[in-house]
Amino acid sequence: MTTGTTNQRSRPQRQPRADGERTRGTILRAAASLATVDGLEGLSIGNLAAAIGMSKSGLYAHFGTKLELQLATVGEAERILAEEVVQPALAARPGLGQLAAVCEAFFSYVERRVFPGGCFFAATALEMGARPGPVRDRVAAIQTDFTALVESFAATALEQHELPAREDPAGLAFELHSILLGADTKFVLNDDPAVLDLARRVVRQRLGLDNA
Questions:
Q1: Which of 37, 76, 88, 112 is the most buried (most CB within 10 A)?
Q2: pTM for this structure?
Q3: Distance between start and end Cα atoms, the chain
């Protein structure tokens, strides 16, 4: 009986923690969306509280400072990028299949407006580029990691003779990333899905998939 009573008493103690994590996740998801429109510097406890209908004191319980909020928001955006773009690519056939998959997953992520202002990292990279500090460093590191991932896909494709022997994996990764960012910018600016269709064709041509 003692064990049963102890277990019953312990269960409610775990629930608030789970609820708190869900609340934090909801806040960060809203913060990441808001940052693609107003910028990370425009993100504050006050305007986020107003956007989600929560008290400032409630938000302060999760994030004590603006910097802490910004870094947590970048972390949430990274999690979403991994879920929406990186994981589908990793699930594809290694090499050329992953190169095509990572580009298509990115276009889909933009087209479905996972964030209202387009890719979070495209939206925040230029903003934070001129603002030295831990937020810029984190955004830059995530961009670098993403490009390195694309480069690794290209290197595998080269090893598997799916690309011409003269191909440079680093150069190809740079080109593809540039196409992704350019398509994101034009899509957000013009609200025209045809931009993404054009980008898809450009990627297929660059990878030689139209002739496959």
A1: 76
A2: 0.86
A3: 69
